[in-house]
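Hallway conversation turned thread

IA: we were arguing at lunch whether anyone had actually written out diguanylate cyclase end to end. Turns out nobody had. So, for the record, here is the sequence (481 residues) and right after it the structure tokens. Reply here if something looks off.
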Amino acid sequence: MHISIKTRYFMSHFLAVVLVSGSIGTYFYLSALDSLIENLRGRLANTAALAAESMDVASFEAVRGPGDTDLPGYVTGLATLRRLRSTNPDIAYVYVMRRTGDAVTFVLDSDESEAQALPGRPYPDPPAALLAGFSGPSVDDKLYEDEWGVFMSGYAPLRGGQGVYLLGIDMRDAEVGRKLWRLRLSGMVSLSLSLGLAFVFATVLARRINRPLRLFMDACAAVAEGKAGARVDVRTGDELERLGVAINDMSMRLEDHELRRTQAEARLIRSRDELEVRVRERTIELSRLNALLVHEIEERKRAEEKLFQAAMTDTLTELPNRRAMEQQLTAQAARVARGGRPFAVLLCDIDRFKSVNDAFGHEAGDEFLRAAAQVMASSVRAGDMVCRWGGEEFLFLLADTDLEGGLVAANKLRQAMEALRVPVDGFLVARSISVGVSVCADCRDKEEVLRLADEALYEAKNSGRNQVAFRVLAAAAAASA
């Protein structure tokens, strides 16, 4: 069977182009398909992990069965899941599950239809990816079908509930299918274009078969000028092919040299680009970790400040508590021991306070204590301190104050409390106070000045209440005299 040279050239180049373009198209199609699946899985994993960080396990720990749907934790958690689902049209359902032993049950389900899974509903035959989601982010490696439909799902453990709670996100199968259809359409268009290009390319080469001598002459001229790639690929089995081999031999060394140089430059450029990418990625990661560390330090400082305030504050009156006052007394006694100015201590006790509790109840007594605390807090100067010492007793620390100043302050405080009226159940409740005053001018420690103030308060009580009495060390009394 005789086949013309023109036909041979057309068929050989057409098939060669089809084979190359088809291989390249197939490679890019499979790569794009893998990239799509991995992109979907990555989006699911990231979305599930971010959403899991926003959920607090403690808010729905009590949600155990269908009867718990009225609990605030369930209502708030369900609203959060539905809000998350509404922000992304690709998401079909968002849910929270609990693992108890080998059993997996629903806690929250964003489904708004009658098929919604209520708390405590078991999930039969959970896939391996779901079980892995209790300990770390996980994504299905394929589509799964259950009573709610066909989905690809991502899972992540909830913050503070690792091993017990996870958050799951289901992506609609229609969305996955739509993306795959688009990818297949792109592959078909690309293949069609490749076939058309192959036909045109082969036709052009076949038409040029009548000018082979011109091609060989141009190739020889290119080799003479030192241009790489001046080869002639002729596979006809005749004299044209042998002539092409001769031309290729002449340009081989030049082409080999140019190829090595080009490859070296490409490797250098690739290494540079890879280094820039690694540096940029590392910089971004370090910035993120630094921001997280700064945030954690700030949160810890705020927590420590709140704990310190709680440890130093009386919860009923919101005044400093006994521990806070003892620290200040220790500091003031140390300052006096170093030659500092004296300070006064006023120990106050509300007279006949027990009768308020007996007559009106403890809530009324607490209200009276809060009102008394406000009067006392407004009676001190800047730099002075008042605390709830215990029960109905309050202690004042007056810095840079001698006995005379302490007595003046005590009488003003006694008069202010005498004028206090607290409405309780239609009655105006009033109670006086007894005050014991002591001064630390050369005291050894805070226990000494507190003991003297307590003795003075005892004297004021025994003198008929609504009184001010004082006790000082003998040396201090002699100095005052």
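OS: looked through it. The chain has a mean pLDDT of 84.
IA: good, adding that to the notes. The radius of gyration is 44 Å.
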